[in-house]
Amino acid sequence: MIEASGLAKRYGDLVAVDDVSFSVQPGEVVGFLGPNGAGKTTTMRILTGFLPPTDGRAVIDGHDIFSDPLAARRAIGYLPESPPVYPEMSVEDYLAYVAKLKDVPRRQRRAAVDRALERCGLADVRRRVIGMLSKGYRQRVGLAQAIVHDPPVMILDEPTVGLDPIQIREIRTLIRDLAGTREGKARTVILSTHILPEVEAICQRVIIMHRGKKALDAPLGELQRGGASLEEIFARTTAREVPVPSDLVLEARP
Amino acid sequence: MKHVGAIAGRELNSLFVSPVAYAVMTLFAVLAGFFFLSGVLQFQEYVIRLQSFQAMEQLEELNLNDHVIAPFLHVMSVVLLFLVPGVTMGLFASEKTNGTLELLLTSPITIWELVIGKFLAAAAFIAILVLLLGLFPAILFTYGDPEFGKTAAGMLGLLLIGMAYASIGAFASSVTQSQFVAFFLAFVLLLVLWMLGFLADLGAAGGATSSDSVGDLLRYLSTAEHFESMVMGLVDTKDLAYFGVIVVAFLTLTKAAVESVRWR
């Protein structure tokens, strides 16, 4: 479903992402772990077509992000770190607008918006202005925006950051729910986080990024069978010195 | 190009939800009313004075087009100089601060669709302003007898100069995150383009005879110069082409600036 090979992103001497390859099978839920500045956001931005890689290629649902960008983007639902919402719009107007942008056919738009509202528990606030919603609800709107066109792939960048514990639990449940059901088929999900229990709660597989490189890639079950806790594994992986061309490795945010 | 409508529609909507549209429209209407009224009063006074001097020849030459409508359109083109940046400042800058540019650039839309949609929204709003302005000359048609063709040419000129301004404002908004910077940059660009003709005149007055071709070039590049001839009632393809080229050139620059987010 997602094929990334040799992805790299350099800004002059700064190496944000360095030769990262992985593939994700349909229906898999993969957790992207790593300390701040490890290259998680940059990798996701490359996959969504927001940033072009300096090197390497990625294929989403059979469409190369470079040679067939529109089809690749159509296959992705993307929630950036802060939900990309217009504060002055109402929830349903906003979702209808996103549905138009994502090429949902006119006749199915109404139904697509209703479904997204319902799936994300937004039916009661559909006419409310987004700027007046709480942070947790705004995050739900962000998730609704990512699934309104029912994409086979969902890419979520720190979906629970800045939420309170109750909201975090709700959003996690929601993500698990959205991952499992897509018109009978499962949805492929990549989500980044630096909260370890989140990975254990949602994901089947873990990719740990460290200093722009892929430091670990293993199914969660396998790691847990090894006896060590995810926290120990994480600490060990990110402490290990990974040789990098420059020790100035930054996560770039334009 | 199927997303253009969606983008333009949302932009217009947000313009009318925010106070910006109403502030701009109010300011525009108040200034237009003020300048129109003072123009008409001056004209009236002038007519009375000429009559008292029995200056029949001058009275013959007096007409509403040259003495009321043309100066009025001129002043309004200057008003647009600082109102259009207010309309366009948010086009791209607000998408950047909202984080919604990330949504747009990861959607299956092309950057041209985005740029043209944004431009059309601003252009439509400016067209509304120009239509509102049309009410004033319409009053003259009720009570007087101005030439229709000349008036229409002047109005078209104002609309075209507004479109050119909108494309420049869109560009200014695409190179910065700050709406304030976008406003200021657009204003400076518009002012410079508008003043180029005066600059040439100044050079000529200073005795810079050797730089005649430079003066001509400056005059040709100036927005005011092309607007001038339309207000005089002359719709020349040369002037239409000028405004067309300005719009296309600045929209192309805007597209490059939006795209550059990807290449940074």
Strand order of the largest sheet of chain A: 6-7-8-3-9-10
Count, helices of chain B: 12
Mean pLDDT of chain B comes to 89
* Biggest beta-sheet profile of chain A: 6 strands, mixed
Shape of chain A: globular
Explain how this protein is built.
- The complex is a heterodimer of chains A (254) and B (264).
- The longest helix of chain A has 16 residues, at 165-180.
- Chain A is 36% helix and 24% strand.
- Chain A has a 6-stranded mixed sheet, with helices on both faces.
- Chain A is built from 9 helices and 10 strands.
- Chain A folds into 2 domains: 1-75 and 152-254, Rossmann fold, CATH 3.40.50; 85-150, no CATH class.
- In chain A, helix 3 (91-101) packs across helix 4, helix 4 packs antiparallel against helix 5 and helix 5 (135-147) packs parallel to helix 6 (165-180).
- Chain A is α/β, with parallel strands linked by helices.
- In chain A, helix 6 (165-180) links the parallel strand 7 (153-157) and strand 8.
- Chain B has one domain (4-263).
- In chain B, helix 1 packs across helix 7, helix 2 (19-52) runs parallel beside helix 7 (111-143) and helix 9 packs antiparallel against helix 10.
- Chain B has helices at residues 4-17, 19-52, 56-61, 64-88, 90-98, 100-105, 111-143, 148-174, 179-205, 212-221, 223-231, 237-263.
- Chain B is an all-alpha fold and 264 residues long.
- The interface between A and B is medium-sized, with 31 and 24 residues.
